[in-house]
Amino acid sequence: MNKVAIYPGTFDPITFGHIDVIKKGLKLFDKVVVAVSDGENKDYLFSIEERIEIVRACRYVDLAVPQETMDKLDAYHRYKFNIMFVGDDWYKSSEWKKYDNQFAELSVDIMYFPYTKSTSSTLINNTLTSLRSDNNV
């Protein structure tokens, strides 16, 4: 049985940490699908189309797709993966405990890969927002 894995995220912007997680997935799975989220109500640095193209340009990605809702079960029904992987910064969060239970019923494993602490898209976004407001950009 092929191991098809999905890695959901906003990738805004994509960082070395994201690439590191994708590379780890590529070593373990037959196919890596990256689902680029646009379902949160927030201001993105890049449009969903730009983020998908940036992710597609990564040689480690087999397929980059839009994740139109934050509902991970919707993604499962669309892409038929048997493994989902994310950074371990989500491990044991209330949101992901729910996903662990839902996906266990579908025989889908959720793997938590070590978070790359030296890089953070949230930190980058916060820094850019601060710089823009300080400079009235």
Give a description of the structure.
The protein is an alpha/beta fold and 137 residues long. The protein has a single domain (4-134), classed as 3-Layer(aba) Sandwich (Rossmann fold). Helix content is 41%, strand content 20%. It contains 5 helices and 5 strands, in the order βαβαβαβαβα. The protein has a 5-stranded parallel sheet, sandwiched between helices. Strand 2, helix 2 and strand 3 form a beta-alpha-beta unit. The longest helix has 14 residues, at 121-134. The radius of gyration is 15 Å and the shape is globular. The model has no long low-confidence stretch (mean pLDDT 85).
Q: How much helicity do the residues have?
A: 40-55%
Low-confidence regions: none
Terminal Cα span? 52 Å
- Can you identify the CATH superfamily? HUPs
Question: What does the largest sheet look like?
Answer: 5 strands, parallel
Q: In sequence order, what are the helices and strands, one letter per element?
A: EHEHEHEHEH
The total domain count is 1
> Which structural class best describes the helix and strand composition?
alpha/beta
According to CATH, the fold-level topology is Rossmann fold
Q: Shape, please? A: globular
What is the CATH level 1 assignment? Alpha Beta
* Spatial ordering of strands, largest sheet: 3-2-1-4-5
Average pLDDT number = 85
Give the CATH architecture.
Answer: 3-Layer(aba) Sandwich
DSSP helical segment count: 5
**How many E strands?**
5
